[in-house]
Amino acid sequence: MSAKAAIRAEAENIFAAFQAAGAAPVEADILLPAETLLDLYGEDIRARAYVTSDPLRGEMMLRPDFTVPVVQAHMAGGAEPARYTYMGEVFRRQEHFGPRASEYMQVGFEVFDRTEPEAADAEVFALIAGLLAPLELRAETGDIGILTAAVQGLSTTPKRKAALLRHIWRPARFRAMLDRFSGRAPLPEARLRLLDRLAGTDAGALIEAAGPAIGLREPADVAARVAALIEDARTAPIDAAETAVLDDLLSLEATADKALLCLEVLAARMPAIAPSVARFARRLDALDARGVSVGTLAFAASHGQSSLEYYDGFVFSFHADDPALPPVSTGGRYDALTAVLGQGRSIPAVGGVIRPGLVARLKGLS
Predict the structure, then answer these.
(1) Which residues form the Aminoacyl-transfer RNA synthetases class-II family profile domain (predicted)?
(2) Domain containing 95 — which CATH number?
């Protein structure tokens, strides 16, 4: 059997297993409107997607994943609750990951159900864990919702909270921004010099002194940015006790049962995360009910910070021993995405994908 045939066979087996679990098979276009993905992820998506131009449809992208088109199809008229499965190629640029494949097969399982979200989390995780059990992979879990709740609970300006939330999926930027907002890191010299100049004049004078305008920004845009810089410089640092909670949260790594105890202690220090911690506790009960050992399941509060931006709750991944290999499976909750794509409607949703090419490779079939 050729490598491609082995991968296809694995994909068909996983696809059949997801259908046996109650999922309806769906198809998704390979070429997707770039505008939708750019609106969701910003220009950063260009660094990892293949972009092309169509004379009639405008800018298009080769499908970087299935979740967005599946959510769009469901929100356009899907019944509730619903379970979907899909199979096909996705396309990702891999400049930063060496020899990893830029085109590979995915098979996915998505659940749209507003009755018991934590039970749905457990359903998806347990199903994928069972299918991958013969490979003896390492499972890792996290919860972006707890980290998001901690940021939203900070005693600082809405603009600073929004900036932190915007970079929550970029760990290095997030840490650097937290250090600056908390006063632990000084402002860059260039920012200090600019603020000194702004203190002695107004934005209009600076714009006039700069000469002819170059670029797309209007003077009003520049003036608004100047006002934002001055406002931020005058904002008091984030409280040290709140920053310490975020530090402790970001460094939390333990088995899921022990992580719950730590999170309950942190919730006493920052009540804003208490509802998310309660959801975490219910999820552990649901996982335990499905036979998942929460006493050995790895949890890291920062897990998922480098994943796709639409995850906003439970996140998970399964890894082989070889650190050079990408995750064999990834997934998580993306409730907010359904609201963005639902044109006023939303529904709790969670899903996960398996890479059959890696499954075949680990079985020695490709």
Answers:
(1) 1-288
(2) 3.30.930.10
How many other CB atoms are there within 10 angstroms of residue 244's CB atom? 14
User: How many domains does the chain divide into?
Assistant: 2
Query: Model confidence over 87-138: pLDDT tens digits?
Result: 999 888 765 555 567 888 999 999 999 999 999 999 999 999 999 999 999 9
Distance CA 5, CA 9 (A): 6
CA atoms within a 13 Å half-sphere pointing along the CA-CB vector of 111 = 24
Q: Decide if 138 contacts 298 (C-beta within 8 A).
A: yes
Which domain covers residue 10, as residue numbers? 1-66+73-136+351-366
Which pTM does this prediction carry?
0.87
Q: Distance between CA atoms of 334 and 40, rounded to whole angstroms?
A: 12
353 in Cβ contact with 329 (< 8 Å):
yes
Annotated binding site: 65-67, 92, 106, 110, 310-311
- Is there a single domain that holds both residue 114 and residue 195? no
Residue numbers belonging to the annotated binding site for L-histidine? 65-67, 92, 106, 110, 310-311
